[in-house]
Design brief:
- There is one protein chain.
- The chain contains ten helices and 13 strands.
- The radius of gyration is 21 Å and the shape is globular.
- The model has no long low-confidence stretch (mean pLDDT 94).
- Helices cover 38% and strands 20% of the residues.
- The strands form three sheets. A six-stranded mixed sheet has the order 5-4-1-2-3-6, sandwiched between helices. The protein has a five-stranded mixed sheet with strand order 9-8-7-12-13, with helices on both faces. It has a two-stranded antiparallel ribbon with strand order 10-11.
- The chain is α/β, with parallel strands linked by helices and 361 residues long.
- Strand 1 and strand 2 form a beta hairpin.
- It starts with a strand and ends in a 24-residue tail after the last helix.
- Pfam families: TsaD.
- Keywords: Acyltransferase, Cytoplasm, Iron, Metal-binding, Transferase, tRNA processing.
- It comes from Mucisphaera calidilacus.
- Its cofactor is Fe(2+).
- It catalyses: L-threonylcarbamoyladenylate + adenosine(37) in tRNA = N(6)-L-threonylcarbamoyladenosine(37) in tRNA + AMP + H(+).
């Protein structure tokens, strides 16, 4: 199949054309980071407006790059959940209009399930790994999710562990604010940590008891905050800090970033090991995805877990880690070939669905 994918759930406007669920023929991402930077986070109203302005040029460019015509498309896929509702609506409306005018099926895709699929994508004719089969452990580490999955196939993932507070990407973003670094925070913390000593500060890694596969990052964030700014005194009901991030020396900031990064990533690898220990059947493959898989330290740590535990590791190429439409179009192929498509009344939904369901113990 040749499928056009559209992604607009947050602050990336993206379109891609993917052949047979694997080969990316054209792929364009317009990021809005500069629009949101001065606010230190994504402003929903600004995001929807920017999607509206950018989507048509992005679509034309992706189809042009793919060297196909709109009439060659077999289906139109769109990330319709979860995300910012105003942003999702822009992508969903465009996809509805295109599918209707081209007379092809419309397929609504779960953004988080798509992150989990992104490791399958290849460019051009390079060989692709076989589609994920039985006994796969899945990991999504992104701005809104930190979850472990028992994966039965591209469209079948059940949650076995998830964060009870912040997502790891959110923790990176908040750490960046605490350390006085820019937005988006993840790449800024990674760059700052490069010159740092991760042994300098012992930051807490929350295990949530001996059995849990869940995650918690709020204690780590608070510990970092107190290291940087001191313990607050309460004055007139409000916390007042002695120091600010401006008072940090360069080396101190780098050491804090490195120590934070190590604690955050170890929280993830320890739960992976726990899931492996607990599984009776045994996993043969680890599939990871989401924006934080762009982090080189995390990639290295996942590679060593995989090596140690004799797992095949499937992790997206750097460009398919953060939000992109190629993962949407790729996953949609599996629904297209199964004849499982949506009606033109497809709705945008801000809350998770499929990839959010927890497996019963
Ligand atoms: P979700 O996919 O859960 O709905 P999202 O779409 O906002 O959330 P993604 O685009 O998948 O999230 O990932 C964005 C997150 O990844 C941000 O929190 C960002 O800081 C983080 N991130 C991106 N690059 C890196 C990096 N190199 N190191 C650490 N974190 C990173
Ligand atoms: Mg984003
Ligand atoms: Fe995402």
């Amino acid at each position: 199949s040749v499928i056009l994918g559209i992604e607009s759930s947050c602050d990336e406007t993206s379109a891609a054309v993917v052949r047979d669920g694997r080969v990316v023929l054209g792929h364009v991402v317009a990021s809005q980071h500069e629009l949101h930077a001065e606010y230190g986070g994504v402003v929903p109203e600004i995001a929807s407006r920017a999607h509206l302005e950018r989507l048509l040029p992005v679509l034309r460019q992706a189809v042009g790059e793919a060297g196909v015509g709109f009439e060659d498309l077999d289906a139109v896929a769109v990330g319709n959940r979860p995300g910012l509702i105003g942003s999702l609506l822009v992508g969903v409306s465009a996809a509805q209009a295109l599918a209707w005018s081209l007379g092809v099926p419309l397929i609504g895709i779960d953004h988080v399930q798509a992150h989990l699929y992104a490791g399958h994508l290849v460019d051009g004719e390079e060989p692709a790994a076989e589609v994920m089969a039985e006994r796969t452990l899945g990991l999504v580490v992104s701005g809104g999710h930190t979850s472990l999955y028992d994966v039965g196939g591209p469209l079948d993932a059940e949650v076995i562990g998830r964060t009870i507070d912040d997502a790891i990407g959110e923790a990176y973003d908040k750490a960046a604010v605490i350390l006085g670094l820019g937005f988006p925070g993840g790449p800024a913390v990674e760059r700052c940590a490069a010159g740092g000593d991760a042994d300098r500060y012992a930051l807490p890694v929350s295990m949530l008891g001996r059995e849990s596969l869940d995650f918690s990052f709020s204690g780590l964030k608070t510990a970092l905050l107190y290291l940087v700014r001191g313990r607050p005194k309460t004055v007139a009901g409000k916390p007042v800090f002695e120091r600010s991030s401006q008072d940090l020396g360069e080396q101190e900031r780098a050491d804090l970033a490195a120590s934070f990064q190590r604690a955050a990533v170890h929280a993830v690898t320890k739960k992976i090991e726990r899931a492996l220990d607990r599984s009776a059947a045994g996993y043969g493959r680890l599939v990871a995805g989401g924006g934080v898989t762009a982090n080189r330290y995390l990639r290295g740590e996942l590679a060593s877990v995989a090596e140690r535990r004799d797992l095949e590791l499937m992790i997206p190429k750097m460009i398919y880690c953060v939000d992109n439409a190629a993962m949407i179009a790729g996953l949609a192929h599996h629904r297209f070939v199964a004849g499982d498509v949506d009606g033109l009344d497809l709705a945008a939904m801000s809350t998770p669905s499929g990839a959010g369901k927890r497996k019963k113990a």
